[in-house]
Design a protein that fits this description.
This protein is α/β, with parallel strands linked by helices. It has helices spanning 15-22, 75-87, 108-120, 132-140, 147-150, 153-175, 182-196, 203-209, 244-247, 282-290, 309-319, 386-399; strands spanning 3-7, 28-31, 40-44, 47-51, 64-67, 72-73, 97-100, 104-105, 200-201, 215-218, 258-264, 267-269, 303-305, 307-308, 323-327, 337-345, 362-369, 403-407, 415-417. It has three domains: 3-100 and 200-259, Adenylosuccinate Synthetase, subunit A, domain 1 (Adenylosuccinate Synthetase, Chain A, domain 1), CATH 3.40.440; 104-196, Adenylosuccinate Synthetase, subunit A, domain 2; 263-417, Adenylosuccinate Synthetase, subunit A, domain 3 (Adenylosuccinate Synthetase, Chain A, domain 3, Alpha-Beta Complex). The strands form five sheets. It has a ten-stranded mixed β-sheet with strand order 9-7-5-2-10-1-11-15-18-19, with helices on both faces. Strands 14-16-17 form a three-stranded mixed β-sheet.
């Protein structure tokens, strides 16, 4: 059975743990978009593993992990991630990690552009300043450098020289940036090329040859950071929704049986942008502390709020979600009352359809009683507190999609399977 896993909120839903959990039953894990602005965290036997580019399925023995063509790669960061994981005892080689020839490469000028644009604009996006967006811009502008170009010395030199002919005057005149050295960048990236070349391949042919195996497609960020369907312009630079797993991997010949959406039992987001159900005051501080709500990539404190079923309903539709994995249920333990957003109102009336400008929307809340019992040690659904099960049932009925997995802690085994 083949599955795709995506986030239903603004990212940070706990996809890393769910992907690690599900990868035990598949042969191949494919990452299909984003870059090292992602941060997937898995805790195994007391060790914390944070993944930025490599699929988190790499922790499972005998699994093949593929970085698809829809991913943009900072080679320096990727090499550091490989080396770091190896030091932690993770086996990584070209036998279990493959990189698409057609993945685009983040260059030094992309990171500079990202930082300068964020500093100059009136409307801040909250970018991670890792060059992700500018790399996708160059991809669309047809001047990007791909992995297949990186590992070909002549092509790399030609494309880099051609790009710097444009970038250096532009950056100097518009951003006041210093000159980018062709020689220095070429030498640096040529070193990266030698290290990464053995991992690179034509992933279309590679995946086609393995099409009869079982697959798990791994998304990064979340639905409302999608460049088309998210809270634009406060979004990422790629399509984070499930249908992009085909384009971002070049594997439309693999039939996906399950589209699994991951959501927290509450809501968080990092960076700027509308957040209708955001907490005010001490409750936000409490949830942030208990849920350890700090970005895995940037360590920025996450904004926290009540569960928003209105945005989840939208996410279920655009991702064609067949089942849900609910994470961090245990963070809500001990709350006397739990609220959730069922719909929105505007200045004068209730919205009949999903509003494109969430900044103008005001949440309509419903509430349920909280539970006093701790859920972190629970491993069977019937043993969850009744009020916790009532909350789960409310989510299922509202969205019309079953919740199949419930995470009640950061460790791999802290998962409840619900039939």
């Amino acid at each position: 059975m083949n599955s795709a896993v995506v986030g239903l909120q603004w990212g940070d839903e706990g996809k890393g743990k769910i992907i690690d959990y599900l990868s035990g039953d598949v042969d191949v894990v494919v990452r299909f978009q984003g870059g090292n602005n992602a941060g997937h965290t898995v805790v195994l036997e007391g060790k914390k593993y944070v993944f930025h580019i490599i699929p988190s399925g790499i922790l499972r023995k005998d699994k093949i992990c593929v970085i698809g063509n829809g991913v943009v790669i900072d080679p320096k960061i990727l090499i550091e991630e490989i080396d770091h994981l190896k030091k932690m005892g993770v086996s990584i080689s070209p036998k279990n990690l493959r990189i698409a020839f057609l993945s685009h490469v983040i260059m030094p000028y992309h990171r500079v552009m990202d930082s300068f644009r964020e500093s100059k604009r009136i409307q801040k996006i909250g970018t991670t300043k890792r060059g992700i967006g500018p790399c996708y811009v160059d991809k669309a502008s047809r001047c990007g450098i791909r992995m297949i170009d990186l590992i070909n010395p002549k092509v790399l030199a030609f494309k880099l020289k051609d790009n710097l002919k444009e970038k250096n005057p532009l950056y100097k005149n518009v951003y006041g940036s210093s000159h980018f050295s062709f020689k220095k960048i070429l030498e640096e990236y040529s070193r990266y090329a030698k290290i990464l070349k053995p991992y690179c391949c034509d992933t279309v042919d590679y995946l086609y040859e393995k099409r009869k195996k079982s697959f798990l497609f791994e998304g990064a960020q979340g639905t409302f950071l999608d460049v088309d369907f998210g809270t634009y312009p406060f979004v990422t630079s790629s399509n984070t929704v499930a249908p992009n797993c085909y384009l971002g991997s070049g594997a439309p010949f693999i039939k996906i049986d399950r589209f699994i959406g991951v959501t927290k039992a509450y809501t968080t987001r990092v960076g700027e942008g509308p957040f209708p159900t955001e907490f005010a005051g001490k409750l936000g501080e409490h949830i942030r502390a208990v849920g350890k709500e700090y970005g895995a990539t940037t360590a920025r404190p996450r904004r926290c709020g009540w569960l928003d079923l209105a945005i989840l309903d939208r996410s279920v539709k655009v991702n064609n979600i067949t089942e849900i994995a609910l994470t961090k249920l245990d963070v809500l333990d001990g709350l006397k009352e739990i609220r959730y957003c069922s719909s929105y109102t505007g200045a004068f009336k209730k919205y009949s359809k999903f509003p494109y400008d969430l900044g103008e929307a005001r949440p309509v809340y419903k509430k349920v009683d909280g539970w006093n019992e701790k859920t972190a040690d629970t491993r069977q659904y019937p043993k969850l507190p009744k009020l916790a099960k009532d909350y789960i049932t409310t989510i299922e009925k509202t969205l019309g999609v079953p919740i199949k997995l419930i995470s009640v802690g950061e460790n791999r085994k802290a998962v409840i399977k619900k039939s």
